[in-house]
Amino acid sequence: QVQLVESGGGLVQPGGSLRLSCAASGNMLRIHAMGWYRQALGKQREEVAFITTSGSTKYADSVKGRFTISRDNAKNTVYLQMNSLKFEDTAVYYCYLDYFIGSDMLMRDWGQGTQVTVSS
């Protein structure tokens, strides 16, 4: 139905910063929320942050105060600004889009994932 394209991942030193982007395709999308999960090697999947249509945000305790999620509604794009990066932030980051189909059906689509590696 829609396509989510992620970008911005890479290799960064501890204490550095990265900004991830996730752009959704399609017109006439009725978006409910957008957010980010991450999957670290050998660890459980963790929801990092999300932002609702009204602009409400929520963050995992592990990233609170360091990461900021934002959204450009005109471009159907969500961003994740990551500052003060730590070794434990190393993971594949996946964005998601929650949107309505028809009158009341809520769907979730996922991006392809982008690798973030924090290493000295």
Account of the protein in words:
The structure is a single chain. With 120 residues, the protein is an all-beta fold. Helix content is 0%, strand content 56%. It contains no helices and eleven strands. The protein has strands at residues 4-7, 10-12, 18-24, 31-39, 46-52, 57-59, 67-72, 77-82, 91-101, 105-110, 114-118. The strands form two sheets. Strands 2, 4, 5, 6, 9, 10 and 11 form a seven-stranded mixed β-sheet that branches. The protein has a four-stranded antiparallel β-sheet with strand order 1-3-8-7, with no helix packed on it. It is elongated and about 50 Å long. The protein starts with a strand and ends with a strand. The mean pLDDT is 94.
Write a compact overview of the structure shown.
The chain has 120 residues and is an all-beta fold. The protein contains no helices and eleven strands.
